[in-house]
Amino acid sequence: DAMVIQNPRYQVTQFGKPVTLSCSQTLNHNVMYWYQQKSSQAPKLLFHYYDKDFNNEADTPDNFQSRRPNTSFCFLDIRSPGLGDAAMYLCATSRETGGGQPQHFGDGTRLSIL
Amino acid sequence: GNSVTQMEGPVTLSEEAFLTINCTYTATGYPSLFWYVQYPGEGLQLLLKATKADDKGSNKGFEATYRKETTSFHLEKGSVQVSDSAVYFCALLDTGRRALTFGSGTRLQVQP
Q1: Per-residue pLDDT for A98 more than 80?
Q2: Mind telling me how many Å the CA of B32 is from chain A's nearest CA?
Q3: More confident residue, B103 or B2
Q4: Which residues neighbour A65 within 8 Å (Cβ) at sequence distance 6 or greater?
Q5: Strand B101-102 and strand B86-93: pairing?
Q6: A109 vs B110: CA distance, rounded Å
Q7: Within an 8 Å CB–CB cutoff, is residue A49 touching chain B?
Q8: Cα(B25)–Cα(B73) distance, rounded to whole angstroms?
Q9: Is B105 within 8 Å of A33 when comparing Cβ atoms?
Q10: What tens digit of pLDDT does each residue of B69-97 get?
Q11: Which of A42, A90, A98 is opposite residue B93, by nearest beta carbon?
Q12: How many CB atoms within 10 Å of residue A82?
C-alpha cells in the first residue's frame, strides 16, 4: 500500500563516511524531491528530478548529490557527512510540477552522525 | 519571494475543543495551498489542499478556505481528538515553481 518508500528508516554513519539514502515510488510520478528537515524546523528542498532532469537548489551544499537511475528510484548521496547533516531526510513525488499537484512524502530516513 | 507564516506552537487543547491554526502567505503568482500533517517519527501526509481563491479543502473533519483577500488559509476542526496530536505545516506551491514553500509548523497537543 505504501507509495513512497524510504530505506532505511534510521541510518547511522560516521563523520566523513559516505552514506546513501534510497527512495522508491510505486506511483509512476515524473517528479521526485529530496528535502532535509532538521529538528523542529520546516522541510527544506535540496534538489529534485523532473524525469531525468536534475534541479539543484542554489543553497544546497556540494556535499549532497543525487541519482535517479529510473522512474521508480532516487538516491541521496552525502559524500562526507558532517555533524550538521544530522537530520530527517524526506523523499517526495508528484505527478507533475505546479498546477496544484500535491507532493506525496515517504516516512523519511533519520540520519545520525557519530 | 514566497513565504508562509504560521502561528507558533505548541497549541494545547482538550479533547473535543475547537481548533484554529492560522496561516498567512505571500506569493508572487497564484499559488496552490496545502496543509500537511506530520505524526511523530513519520513523514508528511497531505491533509487537504485548495488550488484557487474561495476553494475550501476538507478532510477528516479538518477544513481550510483559500482567502485571497486576506492571503490566508487557516486550518480548522470543530472537535479535536487525542489522535490529532501532531505537527501541522501550511505550504504553498507558486505558479511556475516546483518546490513547496513551508511554514515553520505548529505542534498540536490534544489532552484527554
Answers
A1: no
A2: 5
A3: B103
A4: A76, A77, A79
A5: antiparallel
A6: 27
A7: no
A8: 8
A9: no
A10: 999 999 999 999 999 999 999 999 877 77
A11: A98
A12: 12
